[in-house]
Amino acid sequence: YLVESPARLYLLQRRGKEPLLGNRAIIRQRIFPLRIFLGICRVCFKRALGLRKIDHKTIFIERYIMKTIFLTGATGFLGGESLVSLSKDKRVEKIYCLIRAVNNEDAEKRLEKIFAFHDDYFDRKKVIPVAGDLSEESIIDKLKSLNDVDTVIHSAADTSFAPNHKENIWKVNVIGAGNVAKWAANLSRLKTFVYVGTSWICGCDRPDRLVCEDESPNTEYNQLRDYTRSKTAGEINIRKTIPANKLLVVRPSSIAGDSRSWMPRSFVISWAFAVFDLLRLIPTESKAGMDIIPVD
After folding, report:
1. pTM
2. How far is Cα 13 from Cα 25, in angstroms, rounded to an integer?
3. pLDDT tens digits, one per residue of 53-103
4. Cα separation of 165 and 90, whole Å?
5. DSSP tag of 173
6. What is the pLDDT of residues 53-65, one digit of tens each?
7. Among candidates 180, 195, 191, which has minimal Cα distance to 148?
């Protein structure tokens, strides 16, 4: 019997038959009992501790226990998905959503559209609209009544690359982020301030090498767009305002599309791929990688 499988080798030996070992089988024969022992230990260990497979959302919520959340950017691409996902979690009791609207009634109508997009349930007792503009300085006083917030998720941003949006980009991404941070810094129950930045604040000066996250933010790096310049300045201001032990900075790269088989809430940069498809041309290096993350 020519044996390459350790399992078959084990069975043959149990039956009293002499196996003809291949090279790989000889090696596997020595480590096979150890692999079985380690496998049994792993199973017993998991059962003893009650370990289970959990996703990233569960890890985040268990580590940063959130009961009352203040969310910005709820009508946006990432913020909308975050809102719907958090609203379904029973451990989250209340979600305040800052919406740019005339009043709370108009803000609620905008929230309705977010949940209606994929026919999700809109719990009006749990999801509470707060009408206001984060770039206005008066927003700090307006939010003072929300003193039960323990987690702030700031995902609002102007992500436009258009040169004529420069003023609004800095207004939202720097001044607006600063206003939210100033208000949050005075919250007595604040546990975590989540700032959604972008990986592109690393700049474009260091091609062909590994870029480490602690190299940024740095105002000396060359930036191609006002969007990334503003996000650099915004993150620096946030770090000056929020204590380090309460700050969680996340920097996704290009968020586009949805891995699920339905229409995404926004097409954001997906228009670029439509253009590439139409032109049958992508102006980049043939071996270059593109880090694109589906919103879910």
Report:
1. 0.75
2. 13
3. 555 555 555 555 668 999 999 999 999 999 999 999 998 999 999 999 999
4. 39
5. I
6. 555 555 555 555 6
7. 191
Instruction: From residue 191, give the alpha-carbon distance in Å to each of 37, 246, 271.
Output: 43, 6, 38
For residues 187 and 144, give the distance between their C-alpha atoms in angstroms, rounded to a whole number.
Answer: 9
For residues 71 and 57, give the distance between their C-alpha atoms in angstroms, rounded to a whole number. Answer: 16
Neighbours of 284 (CB within 10 A): 10
Alpha helices in the chain (DSSP H): 6-14, 23-49, 56-63, 77-87, 104-116, 139-142, 166-170, 177-185, 226-241, 270-279
**Spatial contact of 169 and 225, defined as CB atoms under 8 Å apart:** no
Tokens of 54: 């959990």
Q: Find tokens 């993350």 and name the residue.
A: 293
Quote the CA–CA distance of 255 and 169 in Å, as a whole number.
18
Distance (Å, whole) CA 208 – CA 189: 44
Question: Token digits for 76?
Answer: 């946006």
Angle at 31 between CA 26 and CA 37, to 5 degrees: 150
